[in-house]
Design a protein that fits this description.
621 residues, five-stranded antiparallel beta sheet, elongated, alpha+beta, 2 domains, Glycosyltransferase
Length: 621
């Protein structure tokens, strides 16, 4: 499981609970995951004893979540030493600095080893690794991706080898006797080990090693970066990274709201950082950097969904990340289909992602969410020039929504639901389309254009929704039509938020009460997605659903219940303040993708609304 992460919009580095590198994405968060394995090891020369700094080794491991500076740190204690490893991704150079601090008995010699094997472009083969003795670096490359490793002080020895094929475990075994004796070049499933000799002459027993990884699209680029690092004080890069993130967070301060504790504040700060780190320089926003679902589901969450991205961009606007939100909307412009729609999901580079939906690969709410995100960005940023640039995208999307109607009912035609499981005419999807058409009309009005056609279509669809999707016999909104589905679904809460009925309407309170009663998890708390959900468990509580309930209670005037649910979310965060998609309904353990961008963005959004409620500000999106 991912427990910490850091990045710069091109590099995204994640760590697991053992302090090991988990994923290394480049040149976009979510694309490509180039890392197979990286590990650090220590050899006690006096006792001829070796240990890897990882779970199962001779070290106790503790992570230090540092949301104040986006610098993950892990501490190891064992073999008579203390080791601190801090991970820095430089904000504007494609450079990772792994700072290793060793505290050992004075005069006692040790050797530090660093093992790396990559799967460049997500394939382990056809790679080359070599030691350049003149430049004192190790290079791994394939096609147009290069990873150059070097250190300060420089490493004493380095070897290259192979893993996986030919029955080989990996060149890391060469380090376990404390002596490297391998080759200086390898190809195929290539790997490498670097060694630093720490003679223990320092009277304090302290040693400090910097392992640099320069990333680039060609060898000339990584060499320029390596020489730039070596041209001045080597400590400046981690200082610059730490100073940048400290200043960045100071400009995006945690929300201090009445009644909320320190965990809630820390979770907010971490959530804003997560939103920054899952957002690429080109505007793509991935659903999660977690790749663990590859084993379970055969695919990952490393895609840009337009629904997830739209809600994340709105939370970014709330938190003051206007530039990131604007880049996302411009990325959406580039990915919009000629007919105005948005397909299921895209890779972070903008190419069409995998799907299990048959043509036309649609979840209609995703197209509507982009229009709503464009309006929300303008509402908070009030930049008419940006809105004018986005107008062609908004207009085409709104025109598509008008055309995509089921003529007998006046509702949207069947498409897949927001849970991506069932085709039908869904209450939530309909509410999104109604909301989007009304927002498109507002955008048109701001630009001096005629938006009445959009507004009228939205009204007609709203009337159709109340006529067809509200069941007076059972006194509740249906989940969907064609086929009819009566199961209680938490997404109806989000439909209410989007204006399906006014909050003063008795149907609003009745709906919220019914959803909470039927979907609340009795053992661990939190709200399930829908009755009978079997995804990663039985009716597991989801973070987004629980926070939809929090916002619904707030909009109904119950601020205390909203506060309780915000605290519940903070209490269920991982120790590093990352939050999952869902929790096991029996054990409360995190399940599925961790961290989930939408979970963090919904927390940020509801925190802002909770705080605004004390100032009597408008809570509308």
């Amino acid at each position: 499981m991912i427990t910490q992460l850091t990045g710069n919009g091109r590099i995204l580095l994640t760590l697991n609970a053992g302090g090991e590198w988990n994923d290394l994405f480049y040149p976009y968060p979510g694309q490509f995951q180039h890392l197979r394995e990286a590990r650090l090891g220590l050899y006690d020369v006096t006792d001829h004893r070796f240990g890897w700094l990882r779970p199962g080794g001779p070290f106790e491991i503790a992570q230090v979540p540092d949301s104040s500076a986006s610098v993950p740190e892990t501490r190891f204690r064992g073999m008579g030493v203390e080791v601190k490893v801090a991970e820095h991704v430089h904000p504007n150079h494609d450079l990772i600095v792994r700072l290793v601090r060793l505290r050992a008995p004075p005069g006692r010699p040790y050797r530090l080893f660093a093992y790396h094997s990559f799967k460049i472009e997500e394939s382990m083969y056809q790679e080359t690794a070599y030691v350049d003795p003149e430049l004192h670096s190790v290079v791994h490359y394939k096609r147009s991706y290069y990873f150059e490793l070097f250190g300060h002080p420089g490493f004493d020895r380095a070897v290259c080898g192979e893993h996986t094929l030919k029955g080989l475990r990996g060149t890391y075994v060469d380090a376990e006797d404390g002596v490297l004796d391998g080759r200086t070049i390898s190809h195929g499933a290539a790997d490498s080990v670097l060694e630093w000799d720490l003679p223990g002459t320092n009277g304090t027993g302290d040693a400090e090693i910097r392992l640099y990884v320069a990333l680039g699209r060609d060898l000339a680029g990584t060499r320029r970066l390596r020489e730039y690092v070596r041209s001045g004080d080597p400590r400046r890069f981690e200082r610059e990274a730490q100073a940048f993130w400290g200043t960045w967070l100071a400009r995006h301060p945690a929300q201090v709201s009445p009644g909320l504790g320190e965990k809630a504040r820390r979770l907010y700060q971490t959530s804003v950082l997560v939103l920054r780190h899952v957002s690429a320089e080109n505007g793509s926003i991935i659903a999660s950097p977690d790749t663990a679902s590859l084993v379970v589901g055969g695919d990952t969450y490393n895609y840009c969904w337009w629904r997830d991205g739209g809600y994340v961009s709105k939370a970014m606007d709330e938190a003051g990340l206007y530039g990131n939100a604007q880049r996302f909307l411009r990325f959406a412009q580039l990915c919009q289909q000629p007919d105005g729609s948005f397909l299921h999901r895209h890779f972070p580079d903008g190419t069409i992602g995998s799907t299990w939906h048959p043509p036309p690969f649609l979840q209609i709410d995703q197209t509507g969410t982009i229009i709503a995100a464009a309006w929300h960005h303008f509402k908070l940023r009030a930049d008419l020039d940006v809105l004018l640039d986005l107008w062609p995208m908004v207009k085409q999307a709104a025109e598509f929504l008008i055309r995509f109607r089921d003529l007998p009912t006046g509702l949207p035609r069947p498409s897949y639901d927001l849970w991506e499981e069932r085709e039908g005419i869904h209450t939530y999807s309909t509410a999104v389309v109604v909301h989007a058409l009304e927002r498109a009309a507002r955008i048109a009005l701001e630009l001096g254009k005629d938006g009445e056609r959009f507004r009228q279509a939205g009204r007609e669809m709203h009337d159709a929704a109340l006529a067809h999707l509200w069941d007076p016999g059972s006194g509740r909104f249906l989940r969907s039509l064609h086929p009819r589905d009566d199961r209680i679904d938490a997404s109806v809460l989000l439909a209410l938020k989007l204006g399906l009925v006014d909050w003063a309407d008795p149907r609003a309170l009745a709906t919220v009460d019914l959803v909470e009663k039927r979907l609340w998890s009795p053992r661990v708390g939190g709200l399930a997605r829908y009755e009978g959900d079997q995804y990663y468990g039985t009716e597991n509580p989801w973070v987004i659903c629980t926070l939809w309930l929090a916002e619904a209670r707030l909009l109904l005037g119950d601020r205390e219940r909203c506060r309780e649910l915000l605290e519940w979310t903070a209490d269920h965060a991982e120790p590093g303040f990352l939050i999952a998609e869902q929790f096991d309904s029996r054990s409360g353990e995190s399940r599925s993708a961790t961290p989930l961008s939408w979970s963090h963005s919904t927390y940020v959004d509801v925190m802002h609304k909770y705080q605004r409620s004390f100032r009597h500000h408008d809570l509308e999106d």
